[in-house]
Amino acid sequence: MSYALTTYVIDIDVARAAIGSKDEKLRRMIGGRFKRQLAADDRYFAHEIERGAPTRHEAVRAVIDGGPYDEQYAFQYGYAYQLVCEFYGRACFNNDFSPFRGDWLEQVDAGLKQLGITAVAVTEFGYGSLPAELPRPEHLPCYGEWSAEECRQALAQWEATTPDQRAALEYEVRTAIESCSRWWSDAVAAERGVAGFMS
Question: What highest taxon heads this organism's lineage (predicted)?
């Protein structure tokens, strides 16, 4: 089975504040902006919806209203929160993380540690959980965050590495970390953090 990691440069506090905000205007804007995506998601999860899962639009409404949630279909609220993050954030280049298999995130983390980059870990996106206000899916999506300060620290640690240190890494790991460095750089420039979803 393969996975995908999608990350966003985002004001994490703003995205989290949408949960339970009851902001009808926000709900309508998300519904309008992602109309085609909502329909495609409903086609993809048609079997679950037939069994009682909320549609993606209904899940977005529940997230913004702060419930009610059907814990059995917690994954729908996770994906709905991803739409909130996509609405507020800017998607990052993720070709080095989509698709991936096995322990790829752990391999990248090992490369980060080899370089002395300890401020962040990409496994945070694979093993973290959604904000506490939302039900936790049994499997996917997984969610994690890097704060603005963590991104600043990670970028500084990256910039302190030498070309020889970078060259010592396996090529694929190095290119993945270079992608992460662009995420950190973009986040620092925007004074934002990074939110990531693994699905």
Answer: Bacteria
